[in-house]
Design brief:
This protein has 135 residues and is α+β, with helices and mostly antiparallel strands. The chain is 26% helix and 9% strand. The chain folds into two domains: 42 residues, no CATH class; 67 residues, no CATH class. Strands 1-2 form a two-stranded parallel sheet.
């Protein structure tokens, strides 16, 4: 019996997100889109259809991206591709290894299960601070 962490996503949503997150050429195609014609056979993206046109150059906060070495849902290579779509210096990247925490696996959603609580401080230290000092 596995512990359920949240409500299940509808299957169509899950598979659409997975396609976006793991497609090898997704972010490359997005950045090159202006040079490709809609009839370009290899270009079969949802950008401009069910996804808005991204602007990775827009100014914004620094981003911290975490992944686990054993994530098979959104593999580390996919997270690296996503990070590379942003301007240099905007993203810091960290890979979490189960052995760092004395664990056998972390995986995707399972990293948030109670059995992997040893990894939580590393995840939280990467989270943006929401505390604002009152002066």
């Amino acid at each position: 019996m596995s512990a359920q962490l949240a409500a299940d996503l509808p299957a169509g949503v899950y598979w659409q997100w997975r396609k976006w997150c793991t497609r090898r050429d997704f972010f490359v195609r997005v950045t090159l889109r202006s040079s490709l014609s809609p009839s370009d056979a290899p270009y079969k993206s949802d950008v401009g259809k069910s996804l808005p046109e991204p602007n990775f150059q827009i100014e914004g906060p620094a981003l911290q991206m975490l992944t686990t070495v054993d994530d098979v849902v959104v593999p580390p290579v996919a997270v690296r591709r996503y990070a590379a779509a942003f301007p240099e210096g905007r993203v810091t990247y960290r890979m979490l290894y189960p052995g760092e925490f004395g664990l056998r696996s972390l995986r995707h959603i399972e990293v948030f299960s109670a059995r992997n609580a040893a990894a939580w401080p590393a995840i939280l230290e990467s989270a943006p601070s929401t505390h604002q000092d009152s002066a």
